[in-house]
Design a protein that fits this description.
Layout lengths: L5 E2 L1 H7 L5 E5 L11 H7 L6 E2 L19 H11 L6 E5 L7 H10 L5 E4 L2 H7 L25 E2 L1 H10 L3 E4 L3 H5 L18 E2 L15 H10 L8 E4 L6 H10 L6 E3 L2 H5 L10
């Protein structure tokens, strides 16, 4: 697809030294894992890549773990990395949760048009024995202006209203066991189940074994089986607003660019005993 949210490793190799190209490592791992994304980045990353910390670039006052920061705070963090509005950005990760999609959505909701995800991420990059380097990368502070697009964002109030109006499909990216309530939540204190009326489409179903997104035909079949209508409004949810962005990325690959993310996701919904759930 000509207007794709993805860039291939072949494209990136040819363009590594391109002016105003920014490469970001947006890896993230569960707090319960024994992995440290920042240390792994410093040990090995794509040449010239910066580290984009999705645990740091958040609303620090929010109770949920990955709440989107204000446009002002986002711009402050991004310009400190050396990124300006005119840069072309390619984002990758080395995470089982395909967290590059989260950073991609964050830039999109803040008005950055020229932003892409590296198809296959760092896992495929390493497997294909492409060049890497170690140590931090530092660029000079620059200027950045963020323009927040509220159409790509959903709140708890929006979800509750939608349960009455039924104007938007809500798609849950968590694994089937968590969606149905048969598997426990990885975060303590959360109920099991899903938002009433939500459709389940586990984000892992969208990817091939090498970490690349499946073909348009394969994605379309998966989406059709789930009875999701890409011509109608969609909102996505997950555990903490991260893998919900993987669904938005796959939908964009098929031409649906306006997926809204429920940022609080199950870390908010599942924690509130007054909110309804289904199992």
């Amino acid at each position: 697809m000509a207007n794709s949210p993805l860039k291939s490793a072949e494209w990136l190799i040819k363009n590594l030294k391109r002016d105003r190209l920014i490469i970001l490592d947006a890896s993230w791992h569960l707090p319960t894992s024994d992995r440290n994304a920042s240390k792994e980045y410093e040990a090995s990353h794509i040449p010239g890549a910066l580290f984009f910390d999705i645990d740091k670039i958040v609303d620090q006052s929010a109770e949920q773990p990955h709440t989107l920061p204000s446009a002002r705070d986002f711009a402050t963090e991004v310009k400190a990395l050396g990124i300006s509005n005119g840069c072309k950005i390619v984002i990758y990760d080395n995470s089982d949760f395909r967290t590059a999609a989260r950073a991609w959505w964050m830039f999109r909701i803040m008005g950055h048009k020229n932003v892409y995800v590296l198809d296959g991420g760092f896992q495929k990059w390493q497997k294909d024995k492409r060049p890497v380097e170690s140590g931090p990368v530092n660029l000079s502070d620059t200027t950045y202006y963020a323009e927040y697009n509220s159409n790509l964002y959903l709140t708890r109030k929006d979800i509750l209203k939608n349960m009455k109006d039924n104007n938007r499909q809500i798609v849950d990216a968590r694994a089937a066991g968590r969606y149905s309530g048969t598997d426990p939540e990885p975060r303590e204190g959360l109920r099991s189940g899903h938002i009433p009326g939500a459709i389940n489409l586990p984000f892992g179903d969208l990817y091939k074994n090498d970490g690349t997104l499946k073909s348009d035909a394969e994605l379309s079949e998966i989406i059709n089986i789930a009875k999701i209508d890409l011509t109608a409004p969609i909102g996505t949810s997950c555990g903490s607003g991260v893998t919900a962005c993987c669904l938005a990325l796959a939908f964009a690959k098929l031409g649906h660019w306006n997926t809204a993310i429920y940022d609080g996701s199950w870390s908010e919904w599942g924690a509130d005993p007054e909110l309804p759930i289904e199992t």
